[in-house]
Amino acid sequence: MGKSNRIPKATITRLSIYYRQLELLEFDGYRMVSSEKLAWLCQVNPAQVRKDLGYFGEFGVRGVGYDVIDLQAQIKKILAVNREWNFAIVGIGNLGSALLEHQNFPARGFNCVAAFDNDPLKIGKPTAAGLSIRDIEELEEAVKELNIEIGFITTPATAAQSVADRFIMANVNAIVNFSPTRIIVPDCCLVENIDFTVKLDTLTYELHHELGI
Amino acid sequence: MGKSNRIPKATITRLSIYYRQLELLEFDGYRMVSSEKLAWLCQVNPAQVRKDLGYFGEFGVRGVGYDVIDLQAQIKKILAVNREWNFAIVGIGNLGSALLEHQNFPARGFNCVAAFDNDPLKIGKPTAAGLSIRDIEELEEAVKELNIEIGFITTPATAAQSVADRFIMANVNAIVNFSPTRIIVPDCCLVENIDFTVKLDTLTYELHHELGI
């Protein structure tokens, strides 16, 4: 367990990005890829690709490159996405509804097994994905019943902390926070904050410095 | 312009994250911060913080750290977010509606000035943000009229490429693609793909390797 602490989080994020490019390469019919090509596709430098993969073993063949299918399998194993994960969404407004329908989640083995809200007008309503919106009061019970391992928070900012607290009390150890606020969790819980505006900053940087706008 | 090519994209992303932590530090009443503390808050190592900022100048005082307010201003300038940017959203389903209402965009100077769809039942309808949904056929005209600099694509995957083409024809040089597909653009156009599942992979990695799940 200790070893993983030494691997930078940025490496893990890049593995995920390498994996997506490998999928596209496979789709395009490639069987092998050089670290140079993979790096170019992912907008990093080739030494970075070799270093990131080097934390986990020897995956390439010198002068030949990486096997596109084999490397995908290796990365899936490292990222622990070689199995399915169940998640639940709390807050079924526009964003929660969008995530319920998002095709990428089931395609990648992330199954939304429950949707919660505290609005009596929403509770009991069916979602496009075939779930029935449940009362937030049923969260703890549903976590056990459905083996919910990851909690998505798509509530307004004011409700985010109390929802996080409920997830933690229900022994959900991983939270994806889409609400525009920070939440405080104990060390036993992992949080990923989704902030769309970080990507926008990258874009404005490039617009300004590369395109001169 | 050439110089920016030598700065890694990951550095730009981290500047954006440093900036957000500096805001929170200011909110919490801090006036100075060490590279160690800033690094810890951002989950990177202190040498990385110093290296990233070092691309752009000398911002800290040895043994004292960084001025929380001044460094925010410097980073805003580097990222070109020291001014406002206008964007438009194409595809007003759940995700498009969620983004229209998202508080973080206006708070960070990103103004949604137009919303488009091709559904006759949606065109002309008001949005929660006070816009009226426009016909996608009006895109080119609206880009000029409203000075739209960034285009968000929140359509189904099947429509994403044709919307990207329209943005490009209308001289919008930056696209944020939320649709679960890749789009192809010429070199004059910048694209950021938003893939929520990359963040999930980081979480599953940590769940598996750090929490043993």
Secondary-structure blueprint:
The structure is a homodimer of 213-residue chains.
Chain A: H1 9-27, E1 32-33, H2 35-42, H3 46-54, E2 60-61, E3 65-67, H4 68-79, E4 85-90, H5 94-101, H6 104-107, E5 110-117, E6 134-135, H7 139-146, E7 150-153, H8 157-169, E8 174-177, E9 190-193, H9 196-209
Helix pairs in contact in A: 1-2, 1-4, 2-3
Report on this structure.
Two copies of one chain form a homodimer. Helix content of chain A is 45%, strand content 16%. The first copy, chain A, is of the alpha/beta class. Chain A folds into two domains: 2-77, Orthogonal Bundle (Arc Repressor Mutant, subunit A), CATH 1.10.10; 85-197, Rossmann fold (3-Layer(aba) Sandwich). The first copy, chain A, has a six-stranded parallel beta sheet with strand order 6-5-4-7-8-9, sandwiched between helices. A three-stranded antiparallel beta sheet of chain A has the order 1-3-2. In chain A, a hairpin with a 3-residue loop joins strand 2 and strand 3. The termini of chain A are far apart. The mean pLDDT of chain A is 92. The interface between A and B is large, with 68 and 68 residues.
